[in-house]
Amino acid sequence: METTISHTEIVEASIQDVWQHLLYKIDQPQHFVPNVSGVEILEKNEAATMRKMTLTMPTESVTIVEKITATPYLVKFEIREHPALTGYVDNLAVPIDAHTTRLTYTMCWLNKETNVAANNMDILKAAVNKSKQYIEQAN
Q: Which domains does the chain have, with CATH numbers?
C-alpha cells in the first residue's frame, strides 16, 4: 500500500519568491493552510522550528506540534504531537524558468494505532492551492 500522496501546482512566481513564502509559512501558516485558528512558535534555531498549530473545522479542533526543517528548496513538517497521526508533509519548490515554479506537497500521514496511511487528497490539494493563490497574489 502506498503511504504517500502528492499534489503539484505551477506557480507564476520565481523560485526565490516561492522559497521566501515557504519560509514565511513556517511562522504564518494561516496564509497557506486552510482552517488554521492558532499558531505558537515553541522554539526556533538555525536547524529547526518547533511549532504548535491549531486547526478548527466545523466539527472538531485539533492541535499539532511539528518540527519544521528547511533546506533550499524543501520544507519538511514532521508531526511530533497529534492525537491520532504520525508522519510528515514536504513542500518542494522546483524552478521551471525565471518566472515559474513547480510546487509539490507530499503527505505521509499514518494512523498511530493501525499504522495505515491516513492521507487526505482533499486537504493536500486545498493546501497547495491556497499557497499558490497567496504567493501569486503577493507578487
A: 5-33+70-138 (3.30.530.20)
Q: Is the torsion defined by CA of 45, 87, 71, 131 positive or negative?
A: negative
Nearest alpha-carbon partner for 9 in 100, 97, 122, 76: 100
Helices 15-27 and 121-138, interaxial angle, to 10°? 120
pTM: 0.94
- Cell numbers found for residue 131: 499557497
How does pLDDT run along the chain (139 residues), one tens digit per residue? 568 999 999 999 999 999 999 999 999 999 999 899 999 999 999 999 999 999 998 999 999 999 999 999 999 999 999 999 999 999 999 999 999 999 999 999 999 999 999 888 999 999 999 999 999 999 8
